[in-house]
Amino acid sequence: MSTSSKQSLFHRFLGFYFRLICILAVDLIVTIINGRVLGLTSVYEKPVVTLIGMAVILLLFFFLFSIIDRLTKIVLKMTVEMGNLLVFRKTAVFFILCGISFGIYILYYHAWFGVWPKIQFGSFL
Q: Around Cβ 123, how many Cβ atoms within 10 Å?
């Protein structure tokens, strides 16, 4: 297998991974918006809140689907370029991906449970 095909496979993996991250990020945004929209029930009637929520989600997805591929390519390019500056490129890219995934995990935890997670690294060792 040549170096270019290995790099191509690596880039395909990164593209796939960033698409997964974008999907999780979009769902996280929708979860947060749903919480805010449901909070409007104290001000407006439920049918009005439902219409507001539906409109916000439609607008969000309309714009996000149009930019998700561009965002994926930009983040992929930045990650690969940052990885190229370091000695162990693939390891650096892997750590960047782990950091992004961990950040999304923390945001999901906060969105779902209303508190920030208590991270204790000693319990993993």
A: 6
Residue 76 near residue 15, CB atoms below 8 Å: yes
Length of the chain: 125
User: What confidence tens digit (pLDDT) does each residue in 36-87 have?
Assistant: 888 888 898 988 888 888 888 888 877 777 677 677 677 777 766 666 666 6
57, 30 Cβ separation under 8 angstroms:
yes
> Within 10 Å of residue 22's Cβ, how many Cβ atoms?
17
Question: Integer distance in angstroms from the first to the last C-alpha of the chain?
Answer: 37
Sequence letter at residue 62: F
DSSP structure class, residue 119:
-
Question: What Å distances lie between residue 55 and 7, 9, 48, 111, CA to CA?
Answer: 42, 39, 11, 21
- pTM score, whole prediction: 0.64
Burial of 14 (0-12, 13-18, 19+ CB in 10 A): buried
Nearest Cα to Cα of residue 71 among 24, 15, 30: 15
